[in-house]
Amino acid sequence: MSPHLQFLLAVSVWTRLRRLGGLGLILLGIADSSVIPLTGSMDVLTIYLAARHREPWPYYALMATIGAVIGGYITYSLARKGGKQALEHRFSRKRAAKIYQRFERWGFGAVAVPAFLPPPFPLVPFLLAAGALQYPRKKFLAALTLGRAIRFTILAALGAVYGRHVTRFFSRYYKPALALLIGLAIVGGVLTVVGYYRTSGRKKRHRAA
Questions:
Q1: Whole-model pTM?
Q2: Helix (H) or strand (E) holding 15
Q3: pLDDT tens profile 127-147
């Protein structure tokens, strides 16, 4: 598929998600919390929908949080079944060890803080670590919900307060902004694939040695 067709497809998907409103946020949240996150997409859509004032802004904050928690729980569950290999299969042992250390030290905060922080701070590695280390489900869900709820509440409130400025910006720079989001998503996907093959290659060489 050519880059032009990819862009048109992305525009079509974005338009449908935008029209779905709160449901679109849930669907996007599930995808964004997967192994290949869509960097910045949830933030932008939450702010944009809240700025339109079709629904009270807390509604969009709630829908974004629900989508993010569902997506995060799916990633957590997959890692929980796969154990530590699920994380070490994607990252090098050295990086996986650092993630384990941070998680074992901070526990609840190792999920809640990354869930609150904006891009480019990564969340997926900590979701995988929580599952791989068999972190209790209730504590995991509480931490993820807390971090995401605070984040999307702030974003939705900003969208509602600066609604006119937000909608004006999107009307002028819709295509460039969308192209940037698509570019970030592609870069994130490429880096994930490259990291995966590098880690796999190191493991094969280690086994051969």
A1: 0.74
A2: helix 3-20
A3: 988 998 889 999 999 999 999
Tell me what the pLDDT averaged over the chain comes to. Answer: 77
The answer, yes or no, to whether the previous bond of 120 is cis (omega within 30 of 0) is yes
What is the Cα–Cα distance from 185 to 179, expressed in whole angstroms? 10
pLDDT of residue 86: 66
Structure tokens at 48: 């944009």
Q: Give the range with max mean pLDDT: 63-72, 165-174, 176-185, 187-196.
A: 63-72
CA distance 81 to 78: 5
Q: What is the DSSP string of 100-130?
A: HHHHHHHTHHHHHHHHHSPTTS--HHHHHHH
Q: What is the predicted pLDDT for the residue at 152?
A: 96
- Residue ranges per domain, the chain? 23-198
> Which residue in this structure is represented by tokens 């971090």?
147
Residues 42/29, Cβ–Cβ less than 8 Å: yes
Give the span between the Cα atoms of 131 and 140, in whole angstroms. Answer: 9
Q: How far apart are CA 76 and CA 97, in angstroms?
A: 18
